[in-house]
Amino acid sequence: MTHRAPRWKDHETWMCINHIPPVSLPVTATRCWFGACKSTRPEMENRPAPEERIIVRPRAATLLDEGVQLCAWDECDRPARPGSKYCSRKCSNKNARKRFRARASDGDEANEAAA
Ligand SMILES: [Zn+2]
Ligand SMILES: [Zn+2]
User: Fold this and answer.
1) Which parts of 7-115 are beta strand (E)?
2) Which of 1, 77, 85, 107 is a good FRET partner for 57, with 20 to 30 A between their CA atoms?
3) Span 25-69, pLDDT tens digits
4) Where are the beta strands (DSSP E) in the chain?
5) What is the pLDDT of residue 12?
6) Where are the domains of the chain?
7) Residues ≥6 apart with Cβ < 8 Å to 100
8) Do residues 62 and 77 make contact, with C-beta atoms less than 8 angstroms apart?
9) How far away, in angstroms, is 100 Cα from ligand 2 center?
């Protein structure tokens, strides 16, 4: 069995990927808990910084705080144009298509892909 190098999962955890499913180990474990496994904790210098785990506050939330009306297309975080629910015609169309798909559950994937 080939030995695969363990890797960091996040600041607190590393993973031994020689097992199925991979085993998550705390940073305090210097080696894999499985006795027969040769994996040791990855280099501490490669350990992800704790900041990477902090969920970045979405720009949308910041805009909302400022009283900006956001685009009604839920995958868009741009502010809506004055007098419109959307930032652009594109988002308006996307939302219309989504509603259409929700109604016609059998959908029309060919047209969707071409659009
Ligand atoms: Zn292991
Ligand atoms: Zn938009």
Assistant:
1) 7-10, 13-16, 23-26
2) 85
3) 999 999 999 988 999 999 999 998 886 555 666 776 766 666 778
4) 7-10, 13-16, 23-26
5) 92
6) 7-53, 59-114
7) none
8) no
9) 18
